[in-house]
């Protein structure tokens, strides 16, 4: 039985190259770089880093080689994403950051040849950015069958009206993948009512109202009001009525890619926790010698171990073409929660220093909170996991299939 948690030598070499590139090129170039400062200098530096990544052969790790990528499977991608996410701009520099990463997969799988040339090629080249417009403020974001944004056929065009929010990257996007209801006869709560449209931006009828402020400040997540937006029928992506299927296809691997990046942040927090513990002296010994602190470290190490195993197993199922929905749901729920818990423990070990902005922990903690509802709230994933576990038992008399189908 082949269970091997080592990487092939060529993939280990890729991991080493990504780690070196992040540490020796991206971090020094971006330290002290202020996005709110001289805009021309900021753009020169970050786009220069993209050219360096392309020259180093570290461009598009998630895309097939015939489309200019590195051709990595999801298991190999896990180690690239986790190394890249050691710094905030890492995934963007390698052109494998959300939401563009998920949109690339979507266009490759669902796009016509014309749509791939018009939208996917520039996205792969890094000359444009994109957004995915599905979430709405009036309905539960975890239930896309309730979408109210509607599209009405008018000759060879569709007239779209609606309201979207938390649309990541919208202000920088050259196009959007917009999900709208096109089938009024399909009841709410039933799949098959929505369609995906490719929308060129900027465009009359698409109003970017504001960039929503969150607990960690401006985020690049926009609120959009859509009024009589006209889109040609040829801009439908993936076929009429397939909006839900397209969205779910996109979100599965995208959820796991988030987990890969979150593992990197959790590991950074654990490293900082241990470093603080071995160097901070208090009440006759270092913090590392105190049982209370040791338990915080031990709990974090165990959780991180679980996170890595879950992500690697789910990634292997995707690579094998197996049903990965339960495993990705489990990983997304568990890794998101672990991220917050591990960072919180690291802050506790740092004391007041951790609560300040003198270390990155406070900002990491603010960023981490969104993980528990982005791409599916904790409660939705737990509900789906329970449903599949019950279904597995009813079908086979055992829950084994719902717990990874592992040989244990």
DSSP helix fraction: 40-55%
Gyration radius, in Å: 22 Å
CATH architecture of the largest domain: Up-down Bundle
CATH topology of the largest domain: Butyryl-CoA Dehydrogenase, subunit A, domain 3
Largest sheet: 4 strands, mixed
The strand count comes to 10
Structural class: alpha+beta
Instruction: List the domain count as a whole number.
Output: 3
Protein name: Acyl-CoA dehydrogenase family protein
Keywords: FAD, Flavoprotein, Oxidoreductase
Pfam family, one: Acyl-CoA_dh_1
Domain Acyl-CoA dehydrogenase/oxidase N-terminal: 9-126
What can you see in these coordinates?
This protein is α+β, with helices and mostly antiparallel strands and 408 residues long. It has 3 domains: 9-97, Butyryl-Coa Dehydrogenase, subunit A, domain 1 (Orthogonal Bundle); 130-237, Butyryl-CoA Dehydrogenase, subunit A, domain 2 (Beta Barrel), CATH 2.40.110.10; 245-403, Butyryl-CoA Dehydrogenase, subunit A, domain 3 (Up-down Bundle), CATH 1.20.140.10. The protein contains 12 helices and 10 strands. The relative contact order is 0.09. The model has no long low-confidence stretch (mean pLDDT 93).
List keywords for this structure.
3 domains; 12 helices; FAD; 49% helix; four-stranded mixed β-sheet; single chain; Butyryl-Coa Dehydrogenase, subunit A, domain 1; Butyryl-CoA Dehydrogenase, subunit A, domain 3; Butyryl-CoA Dehydrogenase, subunit A, domain 2; four-stranded antiparallel β-sheet; globular; alpha+beta; 408 residues
């Amino acid at each position: 039985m082949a269970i091997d948690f080592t990487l092939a030598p060529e993939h280990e070499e890729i991991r080493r190259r990504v780690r070196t590139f992040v540490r020796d090129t991206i971090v020094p170039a971006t330290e002290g770089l202020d996005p709110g400062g001289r805009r021309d200098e900021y753009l020169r530096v970050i786009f220069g880093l993209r050219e360096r990544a392309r020259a180093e052969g570290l461009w598009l790790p998630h895309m097939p080689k015939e489309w200019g990528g590195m051709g990595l499977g999801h298991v190999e991608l896990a180690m690239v994403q986790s190394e890249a996410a050691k710094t905030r701009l890492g995934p963007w520099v390698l052109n494998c950051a959300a939401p563009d990463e998920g949109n690339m997969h979507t266009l490759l799988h669902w796009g016509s040849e014309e749509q791939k040339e018009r939208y996917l090629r520039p996205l792969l080249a890094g000359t444009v950015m994109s957004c995915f417009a599905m979430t709405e403020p009036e309905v539960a974001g975890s239930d896309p069958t309730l979408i109210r944004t509607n599209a009405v056929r008018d000759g060879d065009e569709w007239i779209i009206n609606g309201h979207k929010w938390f649309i990541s990257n919208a202000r920088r996007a050259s196009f959007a993948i917009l999900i709208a209801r096109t089938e009024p006869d399909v009841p709410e709560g039933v799949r098959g009512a929505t369609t995906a449209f490719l929308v060129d931006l900027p465009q009359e009828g698409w109003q970017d109202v504001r960039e929503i402020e969150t607990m960690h400040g401006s985020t690049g997540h926009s609120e959009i009001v859509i009024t009589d937006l006209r889109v040609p029928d040829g801009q439908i992506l993936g076929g009429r009525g397939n909006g839900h299927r397209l969205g779910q296809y996109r979100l599965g691997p995208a959820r796991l890619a988030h987990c890969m990046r979150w593992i990197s942040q959790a590991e950074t927090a654990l490293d900082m926790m241990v470093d603080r513990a071995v160097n901070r002296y208090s009440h006759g010994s270092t913090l590392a010698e105190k049982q209370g602190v040791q338990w915080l470290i031990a709990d974090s190490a165990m959780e991180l171990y679980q996170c890595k195993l879950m992500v690697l197993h789910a990634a292997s199922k995707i690579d094998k073409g197996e049903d990965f929905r339960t495993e990705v749901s489990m990983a997304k729920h568990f890794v998101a929660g672990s991220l917050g818990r591990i960072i919180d423990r690291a802050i506790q070990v740092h004391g007041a220093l951790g609560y300040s902005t003198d270390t990155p922990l406070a900002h990491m903690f603010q960023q981490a909170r969104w993980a528990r509802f982005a791409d599916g709230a904790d409660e939705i994933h737990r509900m789906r996991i329970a449903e599949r576990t019950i279904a597995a038992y009813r079908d086979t008399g055992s829950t084994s299939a719902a717990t990874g189908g592992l040989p244990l």
